[in-house]
Amino acid sequence: MATKLFVFVVAALVVSAGVGVFLLINNEDRSNTSGDITVVDNRGKTVSFSESPKRIMALGSSFTDTLVTLGCMDQIFAVDQSSITRLVGSGAEYDGLTSKQPLTSGSPSTSTADYALTYGIDCVIVWNFPSYTDGIAAVEKAGVKVLALYPTDIGSVEDIISLLGKVMGKSDVASALIDNMNTTIHNITELSKTKAGADYGSNDALRVYIELDTASHTSPGTTTITASMLDMLGVNYISKFNGDASSRSYSPEEISLFSPNIMVFMGPVAPGYDVLRGGLISVPGGVHVDTYDNSTGDGFNGNWASATPSFIKGLVYLYVLIYGEAYEP
Question: Which helix (H) or strand (E) element contains residue 237?
């Protein structure tokens, strides 16, 4: 083991790292002010706009984050509560979300349709969860455009950035963002290989315990975006150690057996929320613990571990934390 570190990460959204998402994007990139803009969402449904939406309801922090990153804050009218909780406080670029209309739930329904009609929403962006099918249908029946999206890995996150870039007339911004993301991924991977040496990706690599920000103390499985980041960094993590593809909760005994060098508590979290601050486990000496501070926003933000452009911030954060050196692009 190259160093003594112990990280505890509470991750937000579990998404598979090796499975592609069916997402088709029309090759022709048309103007955002006139003509048709046509894309195919993750339902395989063609959605067309005569111009870029001007009043968007974003139901999911991943989609809100993508819109903000593309420079479309002014076009966002309403967001779900998770967008406020996860994004506000994690960077000045998200401060404008506090002035948006907050919605308690990200689940679409007939009340979503009524709200959209009342406030002139011209596009609802929502997760394409099977449980949302009826709610999405209700919104579309009311005559409101819906983009139902389901990014599940890093490649499909980039697909969503491209799709929303096209819809919003920001294809150039989207392309540059994707290029920068891929450059960072390449650089971090190569730097990690250099730092870890022969231990990179092996059983002897640094061991990391990561915990999702859910009350069940879940750690992300090997088919998640978080696991993809850890694989790029060449470390060992508890789900890989146990051969668990799906995310699950680990007992204090299992965590102790794994003997992590690094523990990261992801946030935002409530006091006593995770196994360490909840008093369920004690930390041996010589380990490094990184906990999210709700009051300052310091630490690993849960949104960085989800299907969003911000995962690149999480990758850089973990590189600095694990290998103890600043990342210089």
Answer: strand 236-237
Q: Nearest Cα to 174, choosing from 282, 39, 280?
A: 39
- Pairing type for strands 37-40 and 46-49 reads antiparallel
162 within domain boundaries: no
Name the residue with higher pLDDT: 108 or 216: 108
216 or 144, higher pLDDT = 144
What is the band of 136 on the pLDDT scale with cuts at 50, 70, 90? very high
Last residue of a domain, one of 110, 130, 150: 150
Q: Give the model's pLDDT for residue 63.
A: 96
> Closest Cα partner for 168 from 268, 39, 282, 269?
39
In a domain, 313, yes or no: yes
The whole domain housing 217 covers 8-16+178-323
Residue 108 lies in a domain: yes
Indicate whether 185 and 308 sit together in one domain: yes
Q: Are residues 302 and 210 in the same domain?
A: yes
The residue that leads in pLDDT, 137 or 289, is: 137
Element at 74 (helix H, strand E): none
The last residue of one of the domains, among 130, 150, 170, is 150
| Element housing 30 (H / E) | none
Cα distances (angstroms) measured from residue 198 to each of 35, 195, 273: 55, 9, 37
For residue range 25-38, list pLDDT tens digits in order: 333 333 334 458 99
Say if pTM beats, i.e. exceeds, 0.85.
no
Q: Give yes or no for a contact between 307 and 16, defined as CB atoms under 8 angstroms apart.
A: no
Give 275: exposed, middle or buried? Use CB within 10 Å, 0-12, 13-18, 19+.
buried
Measure the CA–CA gap between 203 and 243, rounded to whole angstroms: 12
